[in-house]
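[step 3/7] fold_predict: job queued, chain A
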Amino acid sequence: MLSTLFAAAIALSSVSGVLAAPFQIRQAGGDIQSSPGAFRVLPPLAVDCVMILFLAVLDPSQIQPGLANDGQATPEAGQVASLTSKNNFINFCATQQGVPLTNGQQVKTGSCNPTIVREVPRNFQGLFLTKIFQMGRILATNKLPSSKFQFPVNGGTVPAQQTFTIKMAIQNMVTGNFVNAQANYYAAPCQVDGTGTVIGHSHVVVEKIDSLGSTTVTNPTTFAFFKGLNAAAVGGVLTADVTGGLAPGVYRLASINTCANHQPVLGSVAQHGSFDDMVYVCRRNH
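[step 4/7] structure written:
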């Protein structure tokens, strides 16, 4: 029955010259893209077939109405619109023309993974979130992102309680793309630009540790400084001002490079270098 419905939908799509992808893809400004394959609509009968098929394989209780919101009602400066969907992006990979499905393989040239990922409910800034979304685009080996701190350097010493600027070089990321973290967190698949480069942004986090030789595991919910690097890189370098500096002590500084919807970047092969950087520095009084 399901295969019959699917075949009928595809047949009707072929006659009308469009394919099944019942969701909208939006540009940064929020307008629907008009490029081929970006927004495609089924004729009424085909829509009925697809929706019956959809409801037969996806429990309606798992549909997230929040994914239809692009998060731009009260945008933060520089914030971009999230992709939107009324069916958990079930056909996202169908819109990625010429891109193979991952299908359990390490596709070095990149792929699209329609596998549904469910995030375990957790607390994020006072909100309890449960997200169901597709992985989306898996990056080719020649498009894996990488970053390196230019300042402070590993093992360096910086005066305590004085403002300083973190500088980090980054490559293979279209930086400055972040969606509303309160409304669109993990709410759309990872996306790339026309060259296959991930569309996203970075963050920096500073954690205080006991000493440079400390072997104590840190608590990820406790940190001295955190900032999303929401602006685009200038000359391949992202920056963050630490106003007022940090108290004397030893710190670990790390990057967190993510897709536009804040989820981790996914590489096409298991064996690869870190997409992020980490350095250890000291803050001392004069």
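[step 5/7] annotate
The chain has two helices and 14 strands.
The helical segments are 2-16, 44-57.
exit 0
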